[in-house]
């Protein structure tokens, strides 16, 4: 198997990563900006990611943008915000045809890069700010997006459990921000914030396609404003782990639901930067990451206590979350049997079959990511953010070398922190079950 093919270079204080490959019929460009996850920035970041896609100086409205994307042979513009530990990532990207398959004499790559740079650096403005119409519309959409979280009870329970577990930590913040911030944001203060972001936040530029890194850097040097290239970029510290609690925190929310959502949060005391990271991946896979996992087999299949039961890790923050959907009356039983699975892992109740199945499933999962430009970028950026510069080959080798003792060592560090239960509004309002 070949090593990760990303080539990393620099242009001033910007990092440029290129995956030159002929296997894709598209060229995918992505610009990622890191911001500190904090109450002061989180909602503005979420708004920025959508407002900047509304229009540019050359293409100031939706129709102009659509015409430009059509001119780029049906290119797709995308953008979003997400969390990685206590970093908030603003992403913009463009997926377009590989110019090798086109008859056009003019470089589609250069036209696409020029357009994406304009989206990032030259938004549509009026009166020294963003267009008021766009700001008001995107604020309304963002408000609806935050409000609608409660309509999806699985996502709502996941967010609430993190809010409770990480209270007073930046990671508690929802990646789309806070409703209370929205009224105070306007076209002027968001534009001022935008100017700070593009000239101070760490920027990584990615390209996956039949492109050489030297050619991409040459185009970027021609098209990027000098003040963007030369600007000093701030470093964001790694997530800080909270002090361990002596007692497990139990939180119950009551809404009009028929099915209970039981979420449990654990501190792993292991992050992507640690030697035990590959063992943590195996631990999560055996506990609840896959259909053969202990949670699925014991909580859902054998005990029939849950409609779903799984686990996942946030490896930059060092958090493991368990999520399950249960009958409301089964709360105590479900908590007990989930705790039993955590204890079984600590005691080394792990079979060679479980280890081998999980290694095979994890390996396939990572290899499948190599078939998607988006996943290639995310995997590489994940390693950049960790400061470890993982390659896929390195990670797969280390996963293969993990032994039962390594998984048990990780298991002994896992500490249950918070139990969150979303249940109905009936019965004793003070009861947990």
Any overview of this molecule?
With 433 residues, this protein is of the alpha+beta class. It has two domains: 7-230, Metalloenzyme, LuxS/M16 peptidase-like (Cytochrome Bc1 Complex, Chain A, domain 1), CATH 3.30.830.10; 249-423, Metalloenzyme, LuxS/M16 peptidase-like (Cytochrome Bc1 Complex, Chain A, domain 1, 2-Layer Sandwich). It is built from 15 helices and 13 strands. It has helices spanning 42-51, 62-71, 108-121, 132-147, 153-165, 187-200, 213-223, 226-230, 277-289, 294-302, 331-346, 352-369, 373-386, 392-401, 404-413, and strands at residues 7-11, 14-20, 26-36, 76-84, 87-97, 125-126, 129-130, 203-209, 249-254, 260-267, 306-314, 319-326, 415-423. The strands form three sheets. Strands 1-2-8-3-5-4 form a six-stranded mixed sheet, with helices on both faces. Strands 9-13-10-12-11 form a five-stranded mixed sheet, sandwiched between helices. Strands 6-7 form a two-stranded antiparallel sheet. A hairpin with a 2-residue loop joins strand 4 and strand 5 (87-97). Helix 9 (277-289) packs across helix 12, helix 11 packs across helix 15 (404-413) and helix 12 runs antiparallel to helix 14. The longest helix is centred in the C-terminal third of the chain and has 18 residues, at 352-369. The protein is globular. The N and C termini lie far apart (52 Å). The mean pLDDT is 93.
